[in-house]
Amino acid sequence: MGGLGPGIGxxxxxxxxxxxxxxxxxxxxxxxxxxxxxxxxxxxxxxNDFRASFDEMARQSELDELRKEVEALRTGQGxxxxxxxxxAAFREIRQDLNRPLDAPAAQPxxxxxxxxxxxxxxxxxxxxxxxxxxxxxxxxxxxxTKAKTRKPAVRPxxxxx
Length: 161
Prior knowledge:
The protein is an all-alpha fold and 161 residues long. It has four helices and no strands.
């Protein structure tokens, strides 16, 4: 499928070109093709402008709907009460957030067998006896010694015999 649309293939273009050559003539055919190209270009530009304006209207309507939703949220319209369970949960969260850091928690965090009722404490984390620390070895400071200097190795000269 080419750029000319569905149903127009190579043979159809060849037939249209031959008919145009016979009707218009070889002298005026380039001028006619140029005019047709300009008309097609204008039609494409108009289609693109129409598509762009249509897309802009769609975006504008979506923005208007969003503005209405935001305004409804600001004024509290369309809000439904969540119920006493949600209110209690929010109240508990607010109390935890306002509680000082060094105060004990209202509810202990579950760690251990409470989290996994079907497992025993030994299955969750068996306790291993702590290993005794190795005894510390006393260290003696080493006496300071003079640095030894190395003498360069002297090689005897080889003599050819």
